[in-house]
């Protein structure tokens, strides 16, 4: 658990250094930014629906290695789409799973 906490702190430190004024980012903010990364395009301003969709894209991408989602395709606008393979089990600590998946994503992409 200590290693997890250290790695999670590295993720927070990365975001604090790059995107905030020293405040730790909220989990939704991290998901939004991962979604933007996965979309592969930046717009000056995303609509509220687009922001929600970006967080969903990030969640799907992060949980894909765990067998919860499978990449399907990119639509004509370039948005990635996923199929849900299975639901999270009742009682699953979703925040912990997402944080673990974020750490793995950062490690796999050479960010940490």
Keywords:
single chain, 112 residues, mainly alpha, 2 strands
Describe this structure in words.
With 112 residues, the chain is mainly α. It has one domain. It has a two-stranded antiparallel sheet with strand order 1-2. Strand 1 and strand 2 form a beta hairpin. The longest helix is centred in the N-terminal third of the chain and has 18 residues. It is globular and about 40 Å long. It starts with a helix and ends with a helix. The model has no long low-confidence stretch (mean pLDDT 91).
Show the helix and strand layout.
Layout: H1 2-19, H2 27-39, H3 48-63, E1 69-74, E2 80-84, H4 94-108
Antiparallel strand pairs: 1-2
Helix pairs in contact: 1-4, 2-3
Largest sheet: 2 strands, antiparallel
Structural domain tally: 1
- Radius of gyration equals 14 Å
Order of helices and strands: HHHEEH
The computed structural class is mainly alpha
Provide a count of the helices.
Answer: 4
Strand content: 5-15%
Brief account:
The protein has helices at 2-19, 27-39, 48-63, 94-108, and strands at 69-74, 80-84. It has 112 residues and is mainly alpha-helical. It has one domain.
């Amino acid at each position: 658990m200590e290693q997890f906490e250290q790695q999670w702190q590295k993720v927070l430190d990365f975001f604090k250094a790059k995107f905030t004024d020293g405040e730790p980012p909220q989990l939704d903010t991290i998901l939004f930014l991962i979604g933007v990364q996965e979309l592969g395009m930046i717009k000056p301003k995303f609509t509220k629906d687009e922001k929600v969709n970006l967080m969903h894209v990030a969640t799907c991408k992060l949980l894909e290695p765990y067998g919860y989602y499978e990449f399907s395709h990119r639509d004509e606008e370039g948005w990635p789409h996923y199929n849900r393979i299975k639901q999270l089990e009742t009682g699953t600590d979703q925040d912990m799973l997402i944080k673990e998946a974020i750490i793995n994503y950062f490690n796999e992409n050479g960010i940490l």
